[in-house]
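User: Fold this; tokens only.

Assistant: Input:
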Amino acid sequence: MSAPAEYRPVGPGPAHRGGEPAVPFPRLLSRRLRGGVNRATLHLAGHLAFADLEHVGRRTGTVRHTPLRAFRTGDTVVVGINFGPESDWLRNLRAAGGGRMRLGGQWLRLGAPRIVPVAEGVRGMPWLFGAALRYVVRTKECAELPVLGEESGPPT
């Protein structure tokens, strides 16, 4: 029995652009990082550009907390979309029209995300983080979230 000349996956797979995967990290890795790693990373929120994104589950209505690397530039917060636009946190923010984020010791009320190419999203970031997103992590897109308000204390 001979092997087929070319392997073709059954069913739709991730889109590829120019020979590179469209999503820098596979969705399976995303699922594995939930839980213990996320809980540990949430302790870093407010330090070293780590943020605690609070969003509401679109199906369950449960309040969720997701650790992210985020950068504030003026009235906008920028987050690299490392796991692709199908990430639960991004889908939840879109469905709810926004959420809240603890960043740099403050809680920020955020509006609906806008997806932009990484070259546009990294403009206000420190160059080292922008270069890491573009060339190390190979992120293709960023989410820009408008800051609607600030709070100095813990969530209410």
